[in-house]
Amino acid sequence: MVAKGDTVYAWASDAACQERGECGGAVTALLTHALKTGMVDAVLAVKKGQDIYDAVPVLITDPAEIAETAGSLHCGTLLLSKLFKTYLDGAANMRIAVTVKGCDAMGLYELAKRNQINLDNVLMIGLNCGGSVSPVLARKMIREKFEVDPDDVVKEEIDKGQFIIVTKDGQHKGISMDELEDEGYGRRSNCRRCKMKIPRQADLACGNWGVIGDKAGKATFIEVCSEKGANLLDAAVKAGAVAKEPANPKGIEIRGKVENAMLKLGDKWRARYFEGLGEGKERLKKIMDDTSRCIKCYACIENCPICYCVECSTKKGYLVEPGQVPPPFMFHLIRYAHISDSCINCGQCEEHCAMDIPNSLFMHALQVDLQEMFGHTPGVDMELPVLALVEEQTERKRLSDTGSDQIFDIFK
User: Residues in domain 4Fe-4S ferredoxin-type (predicted)?
Assistant: First the structure.
């Protein structure tokens, strides 16, 4: 029996599943067991499409199809949480197991706070994530830095600080991520700033960090993060679908060091990006200048996991004058006001921007400022954002009585 807080090495009992999986096939085996036994009605995961740069979300109801989702796709930049809201009715009437990166899990929690997702029906298998690489930039990077035709690459991975590719003829080649990122390649900018590397708000947190000895490369390190996760792992072991053993204490220590190194790297990139924005009027001018390229395509809003309103305020003529391109700056101010306290730094608003506006950077910088001010961290639990705690009528009276609009004073 396992319990919340336990750490184990786990691997698929089936040899074929071990071979297909990234680290012994434990995640594939767990998902297959959950679906086969009726623990869930479906599995939402990602499979390779045309090539390693094409990540395709799939909803699976046949356990035999889960094998197609085995392995990693670092060049896939999907965010699965918004799919629950848009296409799956927020898991209102379907029990769904899903593989989640840190930002996926954060998005699920933020939508759940807004009553858009029923987390009781969601089983989250968290995947450690050091970051993802934009598919377009990945192809350019492989061609220019690796001097390899991107279409000849059949596998990629990020391991021990390197981006590693494997070609059709079996050639392996790796380049330091530091070198790649110093030259403008490598991970997406939001991934560099991310500090959600092990998604412990999921039911299980899985990865290869900390797997050492004879199990290195052949097992998955699993941290049990909830009773729901413990039940799944116990059931899979009891059924013979998964084998496990206690995690090596030295491996636990190594995993912690890897995570801490990633967190420090995130701090470094935050400092670099945020300092580059400047402060006060300088920052405002930069944001206004960059957003002046906006063509009002709404890709940022449509792909944001926090945006869920049926009628968007940016489409109300009395707030944002219609028919103007670029739109008035109020268009962007509304988004910052609505989203910034809950931004999960998923990068979707920047990834999908037709005009390459660094939307995610602006929003994330505001979110970090608000987090330092109020102490609220989005996406880690069901705690509401600070502004959601403010009762409008009470605030209106306080504003009238005091003449002060500094609402955060009430939280001191």
Answer: 285-315, 334-364
Residue 71 confidence (pLDDT): 84
Spatial neighbors of 33 by CB under 8 A, at least 6 apart, are 39, 232, 235, 236, 239, 241, 242
Residues 41 and 112 occupy one common structural domain = yes
Number of domains the chain contains: 3
Three state DSSP letters for 170-202: CCEEEEEHHHHHHCCCCCCHHHHHCCCCCCCCC
Type of residue numbered 398: R
Asked, for residue 77, whether it belongs to a domain, the answer is: yes
Please, is 87 exposed, middle or buried when counting C-beta atoms within 10 Å of its C-beta (0-12, 13-18, 19+)? exposed
Determine, yes or no, domain membership for 371: yes
User: What is the Cα–Cα distance from 266 to 210, expressed in whole angstroms?
Assistant: 20
Among 345, 336, 331, 348, residue whose Cα is nearest residue 293: 331
Which is it for the CA torsion 151, 152, 158, 160, positive or negative? negative
Contact 90, 116 (CB under 8 A): yes
Record the pTM.
0.91
Same domain, 116 and 143: no
Given this model, what pLDDT does residue 408 score? 46
139, 81 Cβ separation under 8 angstroms: no
Sheet of strand 220-224, all strands in order from the earlier edge strand to the far edge? 55-60, 42-48, 96-100, 122-127, 204-207, 220-224, 7-12, 242-246
- Give the Cβ contact number of residue 190 at 10 Å: 28
Angstrom distance (rounded) from CA 212 to CA 346: 31
Predicted confidence band of residue 410 (pLDDT cuts 50, 70, 90): very low
Contact between residue 274 and residue 46 where contact means Cβ atoms under 8 Å apart: no
